[in-house]
UniProtKB/TrEMBL annotation:
Family, per entry: Belongs to the ETF alpha-subunit/FixB family.
Every Electron transfer flavoprotein alpha/beta-subunit N-terminal domain range: 5-192
Keyword Electron transport found: yes
Protein name: Electron transfer flavoprotein subunit alpha/FixB family protein
PROSITE patterns noted in UniProt: ETF_ALPHA
Pfam family, one: ETF_alpha
Keyword Electron transport recorded: yes
PANTHER family associated with the record: ELECTRON TRANSFER FLAVOPROTEIN ALPHA, ELECTRON TRANSFER FLAVOPROTEIN SUBUNIT ALPHA, MITOCHONDRIAL
Alphabetized UniProt keyword annotations: Electron transport, FAD, Flavoprotein, Transport
Amino acid sequence: MKDKIIILGEYQQDKISSITLECISAAKQLQGEAEIILLLMGEDRKKDACELQQYDVDQIVLVEHPLLSRFSNEPYAKALLSVWDQLNPAILLWGHTDIGKAISPYLSEKLDIPLYSNVESVEYNEKRLFLTRPVYSGKLIEKIEVNTPTFFLTIKPKKWKASQKKLERNCTIRSLKVKIDKSIPTLIGLEQKKQQTLNLEDAKIIVGAGRGIQNEEGFALINQLAKTIGGTVGVSRGAVELGVCDASMQLGQTGKTVAPDLYIACGISGAIQHLVGVTSAKTIIAINKDPHAPIFEVADYAIVGDLFEIIPALMKEWDNPTI
Ligand code: FAD
């Protein structure tokens, strides 16, 4: 029987998220003779499965259950344990996202299978498999040899290109039944927070706010700049600690990893824990009043000065260019 690589499909606002397409690209690198299976969990996923048939996977497996309609730790973990038992794959692969981070350690412990998390690259060398991942807040890159045929892998977002659609639809779709004990905690509902940002991981332009924004007024200025140039707002922990924004907007080691075309860091010092989440940006502009701020070491363009003077000037220039 062929080995299997299972990718857990992730959804964001009811759309398959880009990390799943990045997982397909990573799985192709690991594939060898194995079969790639995209696992879709939820309710009424058949339409999505038909659309996803154009991607480069061998099979789509649907696991539909009312308790899986939205991500929740316990039902998802139980369902994945059942899928593991039934399909007996070699590799279970998903993103190093909130979902991946939440359930992969639980499954790894429960099944006693090694977990390689936040992986940035995979490479076969004379049939030996090597992985790299950042350690010590990204100060070092660790290279590991995988010595077991069976393992879990979470991949760092934006390290693989999203897989592209093919013309033909030639993968099969099948359903798998799982039993989920009704006694486990059940998600009753989700309430949308007022301060809702666009999906940061997919944003092309991000304006970053740091402690240098000082207060609500500074945060409003950052939002205004983002609106003016068609960007999304991300923040450092310094800004979160000011209490003016939500931790879900945080970029960095304990926040999100992004790779926009443009990142404008405003009043952010450039601590390593922040930088690991943003240095995949194609272009970085930093605005900081301290000419020695570490952010300038990674910035493509440095603007030394007070953000409360620079940002209004930038917006004015954007609206009425003088050059
Ligand atoms: P500061 O370091 O205080 O910098 C503020 C900057 O604003 C300064 O450089 C200052 O010169 C500038 N400034 C002030 N006023 C102005 C002005 N008017 N105009 C222009 N510039 C001005 N941090 C994250 O961001 N993300 C993470 O995921 C994260 N995870 C962490 C995990 C761990 C385990 C630990 C220990 C820390 C983590 N941190 C994280 C915190 C990180 O170490 C820094 O403390 C944090 O990034 C600092 O935020 P900041 O740059 O906004 O603030």
